[in-house]
Amino acid sequence: MPGMTIRTRFAPSPTGLLHIGGARTALFNYLFARHHHGEFLLRIEDTDRERSTDAATQVILDGLAWLGLAPDQAPIFQSTRQARHAEVAYDMLAAGTAYRCWLTADELRQMREHSTRVESPWRDRDPAEGPPGINPAIRIKAPREGDTIVHDLVQGDVRVANAELDDMIILRADGTPTYQHAVVVDDHDMAITHVIRGDDHLTNTFRQLGIYRAMGWEPPRFAHIPLIHGADGAKLSKRHGAVSVLEFREQGFLPEALCNYLLRLGWAHGDDEILSRDEQIKLFDLDGVGRGAARMDYAKLTHLNGVYLRGADLLPLCDDLLARLALRFPVAPEASARVLALLPFLRERAKTLMDLADSAAFLVRTVPLPFEPKATALLTDEARDLLRALGPALAASDFTPAGIDAALRAFADAHGKKLGQIAQPLRAALTGSTASPPIDATAAALGRTEVLARIGAVAG
């Protein structure tokens, strides 16, 4: 593609959530444009005014921002371009590649019931002969002979007989454009060179090519990517799990992990599973996209997310974690330092930010803590007596992990106990659980005052 400025676009309709399939389409468009040093654009196809909402538009913008898929220009709203859509329809009318049609709704329905091709009897008649009182729509004059071929960059050459393509309406009687018409005009005016979208749009492409042909415009290259299915092979839906981008965010997935997973869901490059955004841009091209439907594997995504958690920068990860914890409990200022100190340990076993929030909750909660049944079982009368005696020994340490470890070992030796017989009741008292990061690091993160308060709440 030498000498050509590559331009791709993501064109969602703001009538609902940003589906995970749409997010993958946006990602492929973004990476293809970046790989070829081109531009990635966003068009909001909001011509369906009854179903399009500002809230849905904001969900799209928020989802793309979270995924790091920022367009190179401000979004274009299709509804602002209706005058241009009408202009092109009238240009086609003047050129004789479209015609006015006075069909009523009943007549149109009857035609569709009796033929795969809708061709109005007004196609070759003088528009002035139309009946009074009926506002005409404008239809394209679709070819009757030969084939239309889509040279698809993913699917290969796909052919349809023109006899199967009807004279579709491009401008309704009320002056509004149809989807098929508006898409073509917008892609042409935006100088889109490559249309990368789901293969459920492949049948639309044959009809849209007729408008390019009628206007004498060079069509973009098309690449129709397979849809995402559930593990059972059925179309992905909520019964399979989360399907919208922001649901994944709420469930504690990192955007980098989700993008990495979506990239590998239908595109392959050797055995590499984890790729940075720079590596994705360097490697991605359409020749690696498969033709078969991809299957969503939530377990694999969750595993990948855990890998990304363990490699994430600690400060932003801590901020995200604290924000999630603040939705559950009041978070004191000192909680930030506690969480940051234990985060390297906590994230070792976590798969999502929700897991992290669950395991870090004890750091921000106040006494009395809730106790898991197993933790309660550890706090026997003997254990409480030991904890009561342990308090002064810990208070005398320097409250570094090393100092706490030394104090625990000395206390255990002095009382003829194994270290675990001291550490486990202490863990239960400090966390309300039987699992935590190393007890010396946990106590050091909580600090002397909080540790003594939690021991006192249990042992008296």
As a percent range, the share of strand residues is: 5-15%
Distance between the termini: 77 Å
List the domain count as a whole number: 4
Q: What spatial form do the alpha-carbon principal axes imply?
A: elongated
Alpha-beta content class? mainly alpha
Strand order of the largest sheet: 1-2-3
- Measured as a percent range, the helix fraction is 40-55%
Low-pLDDT sequence parts: none
CATH topology of the largest domain: Rossmann fold
Radius of gyration: 31 Å
Mind telling me the CATH class of the largest domain? Alpha Beta
Features:
460 residues, mainly alpha, Rossmann fold, three-stranded parallel sheet, three-stranded antiparallel sheet, 19 helices, 11% strand, elongated
Structure description:
By secondary structure, this protein is mostly helical. It folds into four domains: 1-71 and 226-311, Rossmann fold; 80-225, Rossmann fold (3-Layer(aba) Sandwich), CATH 3.40.50.620; 312-365; 373-459, Arc Repressor Mutant, subunit A, CATH 1.10.10. It is 47% helix and 11% strand. It is built from 19 helices and twelve strands. A three-stranded parallel beta sheet has the order 1-2-3. Helix 6 (202-215) links the parallel strand 9 (194-198) and strand 10 (221-225). Helix 8 (255-264) crosses helix 10 (298-311), helix 12 packs antiparallel against helix 18 (439-446) and helix 16 packs across helix 17. The radius of gyration is 31 Å and the shape is elongated.
Topology of helices and strands:
Blueprint: E1 7-10, H1 20-35, E2 39-44, H2 54-67, E3 76-77, H3 82-95, E4 98-101, H4 105-114, E5 137-140, E6 147-152, E7 156-161, E8 169-171, H5 179-189, E9 194-198, H6 202-215, E10 221-225, E11 228-229, H7 245-250, H8 255-264, H9 277-283, E12 294-295, H10 298-311, H11 314-326, H12 335-346, H13 353-360, H14 373-378, H15 381-395, H16 401-414, H17 419-431, H18 439-446, H19 448-459
